[in-house]
Amino acid sequence: MTDQQQPPAACPQCGTAGGQLTARQAYEDRDGTLGGPPPGEVAPPPPPVAERATAGTALLVIGGLFAVKGGYDLLGPDQGLERFDAAYRAGARAGSLVVAAVLIALGLFRRWRAAGRAAVGPGERARWERRTAVWERARLCRTCRTAFWPAGALGEGFAASPPVPLERFPLTVAGLADQSFDAPSAPLTSSANHR
Fold first, then answer.
1. Residues 105-146: pLDDT tens digits?
2. Which of 49, 3, 42 is nearest to 170 (CA)?
3. Nearest one of 133, 144, 134, 170 to 35, comparing CA atoms
4. Radius of gyration (Cα) for the chain, nearest Å?
5. What is the C-alpha separation between 141 and 54, in angstroms, rounded?
6. Cα 29 from Cα 145, distance rounded (Å)
7. Quick one: 82 exposed, middle or buried, by C-beta within 10 A (0-12, 13-18, 19+)?
8. Which SS3 state, helix, strand or coil, does residue 100 take?
9. C-alpha angle with apex 192: 188 to 195, nearest 5 degrees?
10. Interior angle at CA 63, CA 59 and CA 69, nearest 5
11. CA-to-CA distance for 178 and 173, rounded, in angstroms?
């Protein structure tokens, strides 16, 4: 039986068997016609995203601009620095180069770190798929505005969950997916796997 064909289970908090929505139904009910919670409260787990090197590139560009300015300050005219002592003049001439060196080093580090995280690994993808499968099997009670998982919803032998307040719903989805389905040999299947 699929999630859409399962008979409604009684809510563990108020005991009503009707008036329930799946998490997907509540999330897709943008105009509120089904009377569920706001879609933001029951949003699906976000897919894993590869880190981008945008910040590192920006730091490199800004560092390069400071290096150009530092080169001009070092090789250009004094611009009225004659009245200051030698240490101040050296700092004024080389200060931009120091800032440039720090920014370039930070930019290279950020790009290096992003390159290591550029691809989403199969473990991250599998974790997201398990979390999405747990999310899809959740039921939301419109009467008491809680979430729950009926007995057997997450596999044979899974006992019915206690009611979960909606503010703890995303954390509970992640926890159930990580605890109950840590074995990669038995992943849950989800209709959102290829979206």
1. 998 888 887 776 656 667 777 888 888 888 888 888 877 888
2. 42
3. 144
4. 28
5. 43
6. 15
7. exposed
8. helix
9. 140
10. 150
11. 9
